[in-house]
Amino acid sequence: MNVRQGSAQPAGAPPLTLVVNVRVLVTMDDARREIAEGAFAFSAGEVTAVGTSADLSPLREGAASVIDARGCVVTPGLVNTHHHLYQTLTRALPGATDVSLFGWLKRLYPIWARYRPEDVFAATQLGLAELALSGCTLSSDHLYLFPNGVVLEDTIAAAEAVGMRFHPTRGAMSVGESAGGLPPDSLVEREEAILADCVRVIDRFHDPRPGAMVRVGVAPCSPFSVSEGLMRDAALLARDKGVMLHTHLAEDRDDVAYSLERFGCRPGEYAERLGWTGTDVWHAHCVQLDAAEIALFARTGTGIAHCPCSNCRLGSGVAPVRAMLDGGARVGLGVDGSASSDAGHILHEARQAMLLQRVVGGAEAMDTRTALYLATRGGAEILGRPDCGQISVGKRADFAIWDVETIASLGSWDPVAALVLAPPAGVRDLYVEGRAVVREGHLARVSGDTVRHAARKSLSRLMAES
Fold it and tell me: Nearest 5°: CA angle at 386, between 385 and 392?
């Protein structure tokens, strides 16, 4: 048993909650323990004890509440390292379902240019609700276009409504079509204004403390939509402010070809020379990294957000995740924008990641526990959150309770492996910072009807204007 000194609750202490009778408690701690008939306790958003239900039985008397997880697997909350939540209102868009990345973007840019603040809020709330219902407690977001008065606050307000732990990044595009970039000129911003707004949102919202609910990052969209100068200045600004850096890199062959033609080097080399490597940086996709680039990322501790469903949907290729892990690179999972993955379910990404590596490297290329690690602690680590992604003493009380005795789950001899091999449709319960976000399969902080109403309202207008 792992319990802090003294099991009795001192007078005036925050209330203690005990989770008991867990069929298998997947801790993702340093030893990656899985505890049969497991239990853990938390107070004030922090895990205070971990062990078996028998070990922790003395805590029942002082507990303010007890959660019975009989017949369930409990994991750390899932972590989503890459998303474009505003895209949740442009799923399965005709003309964008059967094209590769650059053609896909050109089809969608005109619709996104009509977004208003309420649309970004509605889309973000919808996407985060979907993530929460499927077990995600911490999500990053990459918002890189700001038409018609949209601001980063629109996404932060949505996360607060749902109750998610949130890492929004202030993205940007500054090189439009007239300057050789991909986005229309109407969606690019002046670089001085971009940097100034980065400072504004960091100063207002970023919380560097352990247990933070909101952390802000700096995230120019991609090497084909911003200048070298902005990439370099963004890195300097982020390090001055002590925040993380994020962008897209080496997503597909067109991306690599663009880098070679425009910058005279591969994407990894471009990132390195502009200061975009290090433990405070994570790149999305990295499908087309070569061996030298993988070694560079491993050596510098640069993170990789692997988005296998989106990569498949856009025909971008199979990221060399096995080589990344074997080489010591840090990898987490992302669902990517719902306009390219059409869904936001991290366990589906874990399954797809495992299957793709097996297609390329054979049945032993990736096991279920590795895939689940990428979906939890692996993602937390690349987002700079050592306080999340595991259920152990001193870490945050972010966890998912999975009922593995449903019709779709019953019959699995290894219920932990089954989470990846046949992901449940959703969680029974989800807690973030010790607070319920999902109870009995329903949102606890905001009603599903409210989420759907806001989304339908925005979607109706966007469709009518198209």
Answer: 125
